[in-house]
């Protein structure tokens, strides 16, 4: 079939004990789409990202990447097949330089890492590609800092640079804007707008302004279920969504 | 040159941060300088020994360097891989027994003995590491301890090779038919050369692609998986390398003491190696060498002073662990920086 979705999810579920956190989720994301997943706190968005990225095993359901079943693959294998994620709670290598954080992601897909003598930090090819990723998130001038010393917003940008540097064409971004300043957030929105030309993106985000500006389609997750899925306009006007989610915010 | 060519950190503006668990807190350059001074001092030690007419100094120093080599090996997994192996004495024992057993069958050449030692230790590390690395944290400690004790009890049960009593070597290993190692001075310089070589080789390894994956996994395994690395094979490789180097230390230990016994392999020995690495400074390479020197010298001196010296030693170790973050290497770095910046 020609129009095979980039990512196809069927009946995905995950329970923690008696709590069913994601419940029979099905989504199809065509290549090049930016698909936003929104929903109140605790809805199961991060759990869904964990399942899609392979960090968590799913109890039920299937995940297909470009038609190939990846349900049983581990996270590193999924990354090598072009599916990378960012973390809601910043997860970087604090003691490494910003450049090395990104260069490692380049290293992971550039030849063998069973090389024991040449100094990795001096590999010009890895560093040059890492610098390109840093340039996209405006962190060039921070490249030689220790990652722990970045501001919170800069760390969020570094998360994105690392995900980009994996070379993945499908990105799962878990609240990339959380905790960024107004300018940083505007820059990241502009970056995601650019990335839409080259990447398929699943974006979990609470910033509704950004979501409605960026998304081709939106799915609304409430208590682990998708209660609505469609274009931003359709979702905005959906009565169930208004009741369950958007309404709360407008009322607040 | 690309804009990314430089990899130096502007240390003056920004002191190297200590990562949460206190690994690797000295700079690369600092460690190399400290190690070079240390090695130079060791190389000159025989002069001092002859000046004060104390040949025993060389024997003691050789013994200390043997343990420094083993501690260095342990630092690769403990300090750079956050794998707390509590069974590393087994590798020391495998190296020592390779010499003793082969020698009892008339194979006295050190090259052959070393090859057998490295091969056996690598195989043992591959099998036990493959199993141990399926666990982590406290379980990893327990399971490596269990494998170490298995090796220990295996040697005790092997009565053909001395069992509990151990084996005495009739002579030291030969080098291509020559008995040069019978000289304590030659053995001293051979062990020093091995220590220097191991230090600079491991220094390259931890800075290489492989070492960067290992260090990254130590700091944040989830992050490494999320960029496409499966840490297991890297950790296992490090474990095998570490085991092989520790076995090399065992080859020298057998030659130094001319006696081999299961006591080299028991868990107290493994614990001592961990203490050397931790009080010296994990993940610094130079630290474990300093740690071995400090621990064994302290033991020697205290043992002369008081029969219950282990009590004092225990207190000293507790103080070091509590008050010097990053061990001796960390304390040295602070002292050096403090002096340079005027407090
Ligand atoms: N490892 C876990 N064990 C038990 N319960 C968990 C676990 N992880 C998440 N949960 C629970 O699952 C539910 C969904 O959590 P999740 O983090 O997926 O929500 P979310 O939609 O990402 O929320 P937020 O918008 O706050 O990030 C929550 O009730 C949470 O407490
Ligand atoms: Mg979340």
Distance between the termini of chain B: 39 Å
Please report the total strand number of chain A as a whole number: 10
The count of β-strands of chain B is 2
Report on the biggest sheet of chain A.
6 strands, mixed
Q: Provide the β-strand percentage band of chain A.
A: 15-25%
Helix and strand content put the structural class of chain A at: alpha/beta
Keywords:
heterodimer; A: 252 residues; alpha/beta; Rossmann fold; 2 domains; six-stranded mixed beta sheet; four-stranded antiparallel beta sheet; 37% helix; globular; B: 343 residues; mainly alpha; two-stranded antiparallel sheet; 13 helices; disordered C terminus; binds adenosine-5'-triphosphate; binds magnesium ion
What would your notes on this structure say?
Chain B: GO terms for molecular function: branched-chain amino acid transmembrane transporter activity. Chain B: InterPro entries: ABC_transp_permease, LivM-like. The complex is a heterodimer of chains A (252) and B (343). With 252 residues, chain A is α/β, with parallel strands linked by helices. Chain A folds into two domains: 1-82 and 170-252, Rossmann fold (3-Layer(aba) Sandwich); 91-168, no CATH class. In chain A, 37% of the residues lie in helices and 23% in strands. Chain A has helices spanning 45-53, 75-80, 98-107, 124-136, 152-165, 182-195, 208-214, 232-237, 239-251; strands at 7-16, 19-29, 34-38, 60-65, 68-69, 83-85, 170-174, 200-204, 217-222, 225-230. In chain A, the strands form two sheets. A six-stranded mixed sheet of chain A has the order 6-7-8-3-9-10, with helices on both faces. A four-stranded antiparallel sheet of chain A has the order 2-1-4-5, with helices on one face. In chain A, helix 4 (124-136) packs across helix 5. The longest helix of chain A is centred in the middle third of the chain and has 14 residues, at 152-165. The radius of gyration of chain A is 18 Å and the shape is globular. Chain B is mainly α and 343 residues long. Chain B has one domain (2-271). In chain B, 70% of the residues lie in helices and 1% in strands. Chain B is built from 13 helices and two strands, in the order αααααβααααβαααα. A two-stranded antiparallel ribbon of chain B has the order 1-2. The two termini of chain B are 39 Å apart. Chains A and B meet through helix 2, helix 3 and helix 4 of A and helix 6, helix 7 and helix 8 of B. The structure holds adenosine-5'-triphosphate and magnesium ion. Adenosine-5'-triphosphate (ATP) is lined by residues 16, 21, 39, 41-47, 88 of chain A.
């Amino acid at each position: 079939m020609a129009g095979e979705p980039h990512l196809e999810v069927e009946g995905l579920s995950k329970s923690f004990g008696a709590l069913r956190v994601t419940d029979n989720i099905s989504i199809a994301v065509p290549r090049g789409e930016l698909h936003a997943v929104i929903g109140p706190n605790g809805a199961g968005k991060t759990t869904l990202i964990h399942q899609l990225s392979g960090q968590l095993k799913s109890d039920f359901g299937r995940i297909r990447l470009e038609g190939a079943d990846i349900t049983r693959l581990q996270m590193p294998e999924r990354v090598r097949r072009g599916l990378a994620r960012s973390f809601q709670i910043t997860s970087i290598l604090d003691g490494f330089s910003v450049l090395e954080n990104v260069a490692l992601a380049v290293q992971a897909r550039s030849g063998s890492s069973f090389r024991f003598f040449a100094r990795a930090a001096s590999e010009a090819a890895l560093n040059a590609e890492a610098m390109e990723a840093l340039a996209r998130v405006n962190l060039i001038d921070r490249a030689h800092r220790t990652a722990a010393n970045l501001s919170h917003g800069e760390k969020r940008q570094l998360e994105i640079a690392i995900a980009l540097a994996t070379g993945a064409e499908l990105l799962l971004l878990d609240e990339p804007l959380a905790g960024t300043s107004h300018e940083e957030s505007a820059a990241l929105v502009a970056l995601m707008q650019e990335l839409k030309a080259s990447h398929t993106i699943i974006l979990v985000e609470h910033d509704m302004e950004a979501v409605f500006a960026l998304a081709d389609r939106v799915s609304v997750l409430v208590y682990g279920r998708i209660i609505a899925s469609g274009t931003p306009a359709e979702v905005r006007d959906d009565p169930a969504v208004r009741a369950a989610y958007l309404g709360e915010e407008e009322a607040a | 040159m690309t804009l990314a060519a430089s990899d130096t950190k502007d240390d003056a503006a920004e002191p190297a941060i200590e990562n949460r668990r206190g690994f690797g807190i000295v700079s690369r350059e600092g460690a190399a300088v400290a190690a070079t001074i240390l090695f130079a001092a060791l190389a000159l030690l025989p002069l001092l020994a002859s000046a004060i007419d104390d040949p025993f100094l060389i024997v003691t120093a050789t013994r200390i360097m043997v343990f420094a080599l083993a501690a260095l090996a342990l630092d690769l997994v403990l300090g750079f891989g956050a794998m707390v192996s509590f069974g590393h004495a087994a590798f020391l024992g495998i190296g020592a027994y390779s010499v003793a057993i082969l020698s009892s069958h008339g194979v006295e050449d050190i090259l052959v003995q070393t090859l057998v030692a490295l091969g056996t230790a690598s195989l043992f590390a591959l099998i036990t590491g493959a199993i141990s690395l399926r666990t982590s944290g406290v379980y990893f400690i327990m399971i490596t301890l269990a494998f170490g004790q298995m090796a220990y009890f295996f040697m005790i049960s092997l009565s053909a090779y001395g069992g509990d009593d151990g084996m005495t070597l009739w002579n030291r290993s030969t080098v291509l038919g020559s008995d040069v190692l019978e000289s304590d001075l030659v053995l001293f310089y051979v062990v020093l050369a091995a220590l220097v070589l191991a230090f600079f080789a491991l220094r390259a390894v931890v800075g290489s692609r492989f070492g960067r994956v290992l260090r990254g996994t130590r700091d944040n395994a989830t992050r490494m998986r999320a960029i496409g690395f499966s840490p297991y094979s890297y950790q296992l490789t490090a474990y095998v390398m570490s085991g092989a180097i520790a076995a090399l230390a065992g080859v020298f230990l057998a030659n130094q003491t001319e006696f081999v016994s299961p006591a080299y392999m028991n868990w107290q020995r493994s614990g001592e190696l961990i203490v050397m690495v931790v009080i010296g400074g994990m993940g610094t390479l130079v630290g474990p060498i300093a740690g071995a020197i400090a621990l064994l010298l302290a033991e020697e001196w205290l043992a002369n002073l008081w029969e219950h010296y282990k009590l004092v030693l225990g207190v000293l170790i507790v103080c070091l662990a509590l008050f010097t973050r990053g061990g001796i290497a960390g304390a040295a770095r602070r002292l050096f920086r403090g002096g340079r910046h005027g407090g």
